[in-house]
Amino acid sequence: MYPERLKYTEEHEWLLVKEGRGIVGITDYAQNSLGDVVFVDLPEVGKKLKANESLGVVESVKAVSDIYAPCAGIVKRVNENLFAAPELLNDDPYGEGWLVEIEIGELAEALLTASEYEKFVAEEE
Amino acid sequence: MPFLPHTRAEEETMLKTIGVSSVDELFGDIPRELCLDRPLQLPLGLSEKEAWEEVERLAQKNKHTGQYLCFRGAGAYEHYQPKAVKHLLARSEFYTAYTPYQPEISQGTLQAIFEYQTSICELTGMGVANASHYDGATALAEAALMAVEATGRSKIAVSSLVHPEYRETLKTYLFRRGVEIIELPYQEGLTAVDELAGVLTNDVAAVIIQSPNFWGSIEDLAQFAELIHQQGGLLIACCDPLALGVLASPGELGADIAVGEGQSLGLPLSFGGPYLGFMACQEKYVRRLPGRIVGKTVDRLGREGFVLTLQAREQHIRREKAGSNICSNQSLCALAAAIYLALLGPQGLEEVGRQCWQKSHYAKELLAELPGVSLPFAAPFFQEFVVQTAEAPALINQRLWEAGILGGLDLGRYYPELENYLLLCVTEMRTKEEIEQLVEVWGGVSGGKTHF
Amino acid sequence: MVEKLIFEKSVSGRRGHYLPPLDVPACSVQEAIPAKLRRKKTPVLPQLTEVEVVRHYTRLSSLNYGVDTGFYPLGSCTMKYNPKINEDVANLAGFSQIHPDQPAESVQGALELMVKLQQYLAEIAGMDAFTLQPAAGAHGELTGLLLIRAYHAAQGEQQRDKVLIPDSAHGTNPATASLAGCQIIQIPSNGQGEVDLVALKRVVGKDTAALMLTNPNTLGLFETQIAEIAAIVHEAGGLLYYDGANMNAIMGYARPGDMGFDVVHFNLHKTFSTPHGGGGPGSGPVGVKRKLEPFLPKPVIIYDRQKQRYRFDGERPQSIGRVKAFYGNFGVLVKAFTYILMLGGKGLKEASEKAVLNANYLLKLLSQDYEQPFAGLCKHEFIVTPPKTKEGGIRTLDVAKRLLDYGFHPPTVYFPLIVAEALMIEPTETENKSTLDAFAAVMARIAQEAEENPEILHQAPHQTPLSRLDETQAARRPVLRWKAD
Fold first, then answer.
1. Whether complex ipTM tops 0.95
2. Chains touching chain C at 3 or more Cβ pairs under 8 angstroms?
3. Which of C7, C99, C348, C361 best probes binding to B when mutated, by most B CB atoms within 10 angstroms?
4. Counting Cβ atoms within 10 Å, is residue A50 exposed (0-12), middle (13-18) or buried (19+)?
5. Most buried of B265, C94, C370, C468, CB within 10 angstroms?
6. Are residues C231 and C105 in the same domain?
7. What is the pLDDT of residues C234-270, one digit of tens each?
């Protein structure tokens, strides 16, 4: 449920670091608690983000959640497929449902490993 | 007591079931020192007949449009409401329902609003409309907040020819939000477009133009759209939907948000309310549009139906992050407008619009022939126009009122620099004879109630 | 769709209303309005005869459920009976056909009605002055917070911009605070469902603008420590705002003004029966203590004793300004005024008494099958949650949808947020015992169905014109208007 290769935040984002770039998404736990996602608002490409800054919003029918940047950096790509098919976030949160790709300036503090995150989620419930 | 059903015996049974000996026990949780120790100092309570007579007595102290001829608009317009409208509004399944939270038993309200949204989109040339707002003034203020959020800018430019009470409302709404308001000057009865270049900078979220403006003149919205779009801001157009049967829609002219007062769509004058604020915008701003929105969907068995949708924008989900705190609409007023538009249809609406400007132009021409009356502006107008007078407006209006005519608005009230200017309104309601009567009494030719 | 859209019924060339012929000499549009300002594309509006329009909306009305249809125990909404006289008084020509800008001498009846209504509301609230301008409860809240900010600013305390809101509050409260440029601090509830005083003491201070409170609160419980709460907030220099959503519980018994509240709003469409209109128009008058009166929205109505005349006064230098055009939802005010005249002081108190009696009776009946998260008596409304079942529990949504099959409007669901699976029930005073008994019997039956045949609940409703609607699809692929093919 929480792939080992990813880093996690307590706000339920995941981060995949690869060659100075980071791909950001929300965890399976997050998509499950939100329910059917109906809309995703993402930043413009080129936007400079601070770590832990809100980079966008995910909306379900009955809830809305801010997405916080797990790293500082510049937005290089956003997943435009989500605009027409927000359900990708529910169906494949770690794959097709990714949100943005960031050129990493610096990682946020206190990122969690998969097992730490799993423990965190268990405690939160 | 009226509307209270229990018999003494039933009440006893109920108290016994609850397990208390008296009703007062049910209020035992209110600390004694906070309890009101005397009866409320209010009327004693009247039978329906007595209440009716008392309220009717107050109504009779007012003079209504059935008793005088109305040549005043200024944000509230006397138009004809087809009789069917009132009859349909009297269906209590409409007026005793709550906001349609349970779509399975609210398809009537939901579909009516969906149809209303469609009509507003058609009239304004916009992609989406909400289920309505309190009134034109509050719709305008919330449109400004919407533009501030959408652009991340903190200045709003508003024409000085937007209804003065709308501008006051705008000020109230924006003040605590730290948004700066820039007022745009007027020239020749129109918003001064020449002086805009320096004012519309790239930190202005939106420019607000009313058309027809408060003085009745039709603004060239396209010019403003071009100027503000060059700076990356939005154009908010405040319109009279009744005029949109004959005038180009704000959408066609480049507006990003269209708002206005829908009272003109056959709603009664009702001393200023309840009225109908409408709000529409380009599709790309739909998630910033405040208020209720109805959308089409399907039920479990695949049948089409309607629900309140995009609710994640709203206060009950977004709480302090919501763009607005509104949690209702003017549902019944929106229904009235929708029925009005359905009865008139496109031809009827165009004809009402044409008659309004034909009759107002006729009145303008006759008035201009009176000595001491001149027309200060040459701008095209719809149903309201300004005349300049040699005689004090108060005297003219006094003479008219004594003859059973409500004359024009003294513009000096809102624009102190305009001395002896009157704003007149002539809708389709006024006949040729009534217009001529206005002119006669105005000119002192007649004491009124007579004919040429 | 049960009924075709009115646009789909339209036939080009039909018409439902005709105007008298134009009787003035026609001038040319071309000359009067330049081409670029004229409409080119005719709007697509319905084209139907009058009878077709009348049938369309009559059929739509039959798809609705109103208070006149049946029991409507929607918590916090006070869906009481709306006396028919209300509709007739608002339609009197002397009210419905008066222009907002007529000479004051020609609207003395309207002004007298408004002044009297202000006085009645002030007496019911225990306040000194009222404005009738706000068009709805949320609009009243905004007005109230702007008044509070203006008051603090006049005391040289601009910095007071924190609004304290209990976690049981309606979402409007935080949204309003934000609209008034304030930050929100949430106050937790204690085990009894009331404001936690220790938490409150921790957060009040020099930056406190106000505490917003509903009393009885959204759990239907009276905040018994209100006097202490008021003292804590006032001592810190803050003010108390009363959200009048639940005023129907205590009319004539207790008054917000006596509890220490400085500003209140009432919902005339709830407490004073004006109806809800399917979502509006409502009315949300705001009352204040004397020290806040100078800040009320302008214009205010004053009585000139010398001339024995009412008139508007716009010379209010400290006013927060207008909150809407003209003077409020006047037609709604006429209805509330009439309602108060008919009930009188004694009748209003009795209405509250019966509202509380009905709620406690129904709570007692329901508590046999449903869980009651807060024990004891309630005021005009209460919260229950669905019983545990073999399957692990039924969802509140299922109970609500199943109620539709039995001909009842469901209660408010999933609110307040601090109770999971909440059903918030407000029967109001105008319902008789048989209705309450019948509703309780159906609720018991649903609880039984949940044990024996849970599927029937999951699939409910079965008897309505449409079954459960897909809100996900509506929000994912929004279709917000009809378009011609």
1. yes
2. A, B
3. C99
4. middle
5. B265
6. yes
7. 999 999 999 999 999 999 999 999 999 999 999 999 9
